[in-house]
Amino acid sequence: MADHVGHHDSLVDKITEKIHGHDGSSSSSSSDSDDDSKPSKVDAVKSKIYRLFGRDKPVHKVLGGGKPADVLLWRNKKNSGAVLGVATVIWVLFELLEYHLITLVCHLSILSLAILFLWSNASTFINKSPPQIPEVVIPEKCILEVASALRIEFNRGCTVLREIASGRDLKKFVIVIAGLWFISIIGGCCNFLTLFYIVFVLLHTLPVLYEKYDDKVDAFAEKAMIELKKQYAVFEEKVLSKIPKGPLKDKKKV
């Protein structure tokens, strides 16, 4: 009888342990599921945050990564400063001092050739080795890659212009016309070199500032985009909707 009672107690204990184990595993699994759901909730919140130009990557990745992005974002201050300094010197020479490109190239070539010529001939008298002049050869593959990239971009631009001229996308037409008009105003205020230098300086200042204050800039840009969409909706209703559009599809040949 005692053995039977002891066997019954042990059976009850085993059942109790299984129940507690199941509860523990279910609680742990529920906690794991809660932990798994936390990142998804965070990702959902991040996806709702407005980012300028719809970016979902860091600014460094958006700029292509590598050394060019490092220069634009001032990862190495010496390299970025050197690039900006060289651009500033070129702008000062051609714009402020009114130096001509052909004159500058000829003077630099004369100076370089004279120094190398004198050094090569004087090396025998001063017991020093002559200068090691490197052999500069542009590989054919590099030229072909650049030409191919330019061809692709040119064809893409021609396709976009053709779509705009066909009258199928009125919104894109208005944006391009406004952009060209704005560029024409800037071009009337300064020449090409100054405009190029301004763009170059902006490329070396705006990305690094945006990376530092991206949250504030994105919040301001979101409000600005909402306001622009409202104004465009009013403009489209009052003006663009009354303009006849071109055919949406090309007519089939019979």
TrEMBL record:
The UniProt keywords, alphabetically, are: Endoplasmic reticulum, Membrane, Transmembrane, Transmembrane helix
Does the keyword rRNA-binding belong to this entry?
no
GO BP term (any one): response to bacterium
Q: Quick check: keyword rRNA-binding in the entry? A: no
* Topology within the bilayer: Multi-pass membrane protein
A Pfam family annotated for this chain is: Reticulon
Q: Which residues cross the membrane?
A: 79-94, 100-119, 173-203
* InterPro entries from the UniProt entry: Reticulon, Reticulon-like
Q: Where in or outside the cell is it found?
A: Endoplasmic reticulum membrane
Q: Where is the Reticulon domain positioned along the sequence?
A: 68-254
Query: What GO CC terms are in its UniProt record?
Result: endoplasmic reticulum membrane
Region annotation (Disordered) maps to: 19-41
- Designated name of the protein: Reticulon-like protein
Q: What is the lineage of its organism?
A: Eukaryota, Viridiplantae, Streptophyta, Embryophyta, Tracheophyta
